[in-house]
UniProtKB/TrEMBL annotation:
The keyword Hydrolase applies. GO terms for molecular function: acylphosphatase activity. It is an enzyme of class 3 (hydrolase). The active site is at residues 17, 35. This is acylphosphatase. It comes from Pseudarthrobacter sulfonivorans.
Amino acid sequence: MRVSARVFGVVQGVGFRFWTMGKADELALKGVVRNLDDGSVSIEAEGPEQQVQKLLDWLRSENAPGRVERVEESISAADGSFRDFRAR
């Protein structure tokens, strides 16, 4: 399973990317997280459905760094294009 997500709110300059990378590593997900010019954060993650859902739950949790206002997501089939999880 693959999720493409955008996280909006106060999510840059607060360690959000590296926190996300740590959570993705805990879940053995592969993908990438990056800051976007509009102040949001983009996440592409692949792995088992249950693990991907846990990541989405964490992104929406009160424990996430900064202040998450909303998370937009789209789900698709994994294509195996990632070898690990990285922050860019």
